[in-house]
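Team,

Forwarding the record for the chain on the shared tracking sheet. I've put the sequence and predicted structure together so nobody has to dig through attachments.
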Amino acid sequence: MTLTRLVLKNLTCRRGRFIFTLLGITIGIASVVSFLSLGGSLKSEIRRESAALGANLVVTPKGSCAYEQVSILTGEQLPTTITADEVARVQEIDGLTALPFLAERTAIRNRPVGVMGILPAETLRFKGWQVTRGDYFPDTEAAGAVLGAIVADQFDLAPGGEVTIRGERLPILGVLKETGGKDDLTIFVALTTAQRLYNQGDRVSYLAVRVADIDQVDAYAEKIKEAVSLGVVSDKQMLKSVLSIVGTVNITLQLIAAVAVLAAAFGIINTMLTATYERKREIGILLALGARRRTIFTLFLLESAIYGVLGGLAGAVTGLLFSTLAAPHITQNAFTAFVSGSGAVGPASVGVILGAVVFSAVIAMLAGVYPAWRAARLAPVEAISYE
């Protein structure tokens, strides 16, 4: 009987133990793959949203923390304390373009959707949007809504229909071309309309500022601070701050998954140690027939490796499927909005599966080293006489 056939025979002779040990490593690897898949594209999503904002500087309410910076990129509801007078003073500074935004939330069919109050004409030039269906706002005071592409598709909304915000029905004027960012998930209304609907008076959430000379960003930031008592952060500073927060969350999730893998590794150790005691007589016979201790060691190490390969393959597939199915249903907030769509199975999934299988096999083989060493150290006479 060849070594491979002997390994497969030993694994399948106790099917219950084989299945439950395999499930342990499968669940551990599935956890790792799920978190990596869901969090793997967070950085690229954040960079894309930062670029889509189109601003060199962002003016925020005084005392704003990193949470508000995350919310700006995700389109979440923000504190609204910046007044029209403060907006005017910033806009008076030469060499920059400052646009106010009012970020709020509504619900369509019990699902949260972002609402953004904008200056229609100025924002169109600032963002470079294109309208694929219907028309854009005819003027600054137009009472209507322009929808992001995904919002329109998700809720089957089209120009000529209506959308209800804060109990008021607004006509849908048009639908924007897909941008690949949070704008696709947002309903846009004129700033004056948003302020009226949400009782915000003349206040806004933040200002997006584009400067004429990119090399003078810091100087413009100082000018804004001198003009108004508000927070000012550059696009690079905001990006660094948000990436730091999300990176910490990502590491935490990976550590949680590592605990699951560690538990699975101890399960393999327990299974292989039990097999060592149960198969003492078999080991003794093999040694008496001339098998080398290295062969016994290899036999048990191969059994552990098979647990790792099969568990890694099953865990990788399970993790990818779970992340693909779970991502669209994750509650959208400032920390999870980037996750949506990041778990989709794609070309990179092949690399994830291969990496998971290799990682799982290595962990399983490391877990099997001690049981294999114990089995190889048995004395032939002692092993044969074991009952």
